[in-house]
Amino acid sequence: MIYPIVTLLQAYRTGQCTITDVVDQLLERAERTLHHNVWITRLSRRQILAYADSLHESRGKDLPLYGVPFVIKDNIDLAGVPTSAGCAAYAYTPTRSAFVVRRLLDAGAIPLGKVNLDQFATGLAGTRSAHGVCTNSVNGDYIAGGSSSGSAVAVALGLASFALGTDTAGSGRVPAAFNNIVGLKPSNGRISLRGIVPANRSLDCVAIFARSAGDAALVLDTAEAFDPDDAYSRALDHVPINALRYGVPRREQLEFYGDSDYESLFAQALQRLDAAGGTRVEIDFAPFAAAAKLLYGGAYMAERYAALGEFVETHPQHIHPITRQVILQGKLPTAADAFRAQHELMALRRRSAAAWQAVDLIVTPTAGTIYPVDKVMADPIHLPATLGYYTVFINFFQLAGVAIPAGFRADGLPFGITLVGRDCSERALLRIAGRL
């Protein structure tokens, strides 16, 4: 069993278990769950315990993440292990871990391996992978969400205490919702992106997946730091949320795509917020929703083409067909289109500011529905795009978001909501999430 991080640390300190005990348990569990297609590169027992041995030799059990096992999305570097971004032809073996990974290792965390993703972090369903579809932890006939599918499923199945993913348009929140765990999208620039394969560099964030808001907060404490060698890194304070006036989209602006269970579960979640002392305020969600159109099929795909287009064009046979189609769309917009999109984004941000005059946070479904794998395979462009309706704006508007579990459909599939706060409010959001 994977305990909450604080409980696991206490168990180590009191001798109830050792890192070796935990590693052996997790290796056995990994063998039993291979059908979920979580892994791209699994570290051997010897490799994992080498990290533990270095802790015993040098620093002891006072490290904040001593012996806490975690997994890494395979677009984030771990020294000596290939980074493929889900494409074997792209793979390279870094000599140095990503900045955020080094911080976690220095804090005592133990890496178990690299996990599956939508190729080049392009997708919200988790179905665009040469390593097989990473299936939902509750029902394998359904999608796990993407692009950080392996990160979320690993935590949900108890294969690790936490996971690192990335989030450009919802990839750290949609998989969390679909697998009944917590997904943190921090403020843009709070966690360094150095050593991470870019998707949309101006929107990319490192995401944290955990079993609870408290665990996510503990990992954030270590992961965050200003990195002078990352041009997008920012030295940020944490701002409070002093009241619980929460905004929700107007009824006619809510999208559930015919999923009456998700609609009912969202209404119940709002009732719990009200009972916890929240004050509900309807807001105009139109400027928030409009941001998604700037990414999917819009000029901002040019940024993804700038990062990956040359490789995709010279290695077409190695690229997932849908990933190739999506990335190469980014070659079409002109420079003028890119500036028009930038101007539209600024106008949408200004329009959205009116909502923040009336509320302290915003609450939405994390996704409007969940799809079976076969339906996404039959409609691989449109259906994944719908999953970004409630998520894309958070990256575009430089906001913080915490996806948390909020119940189950009649068929047992999870539902989740997202708490959205202003820039630098993630720690306050996590405290509210913990109460809920």
Question: Which terms summarize this structure?
Answer:
single chain, 436 residues, Amidase signature (AS) enzymes, 14% strand
What does this structure look like?
There is one protein chain. The protein has a domain at 5-223: Amidase signature (AS) enzymes, CATH 3.90.1300. Helix content is 38%, strand content 14%. The protein contains 16 helices and eleven strands. It has helices at residues 5-14, 19-32, 45-58, 99-106, 149-156, 174-178, 213-223, 260-275, 286-295, 301-314, 321-328, 335-356, 373-378, 382-386, 392-396, 426-435, and strands spanning 39-42, 69-73, 110-115, 162-167, 182-185, 205-210, 245-249, 279-283, 361-365, 400-408, 414-421. An eleven-stranded mixed sheet has the order 1-3-2-4-6-5-10-11-9-7-8, sandwiched between helices. Helix 8 links the parallel strand 7 and strand 8 (279-283). The relative contact order is 0.14.
Provide a compact summary of the structure.
The chain has a domain at 5-223: Alpha-Beta Complex (Amidase signature (AS) enzymes), CATH 3.90.1300. 38% of the residues lie in helices and 14% in strands.
> Widest sheet: strand order?
1-3-2-4-6-5-10-11-9-7-8
Measured on Cα atoms, how large is the radius of gyration? Answer: 20 Å
State the CATH superfamily name of the domain at 5-223.
Answer: Amidase signature (AS) domain
The major sheet is characterized as:
11 strands, mixed
Proportion of residues in β-strands:
5-15%
CATH architectural grouping of the domain at 5-223: Alpha-Beta Complex
Extended strand count: 11
What is the helix tally? 16
Task: Name the CATH class of the domain at 5-223.
Answer: Alpha Beta
Query: What's the overall geometry?
Result: globular
Helix content: 25-40%
Low-confidence stretches: none
The separation of the N and C termini measures 24 Å
| CATH fold title of the domain at 5-223 | Amidase signature (AS) enzymes
Task: Give average pLDDT, whole number.
Answer: 96
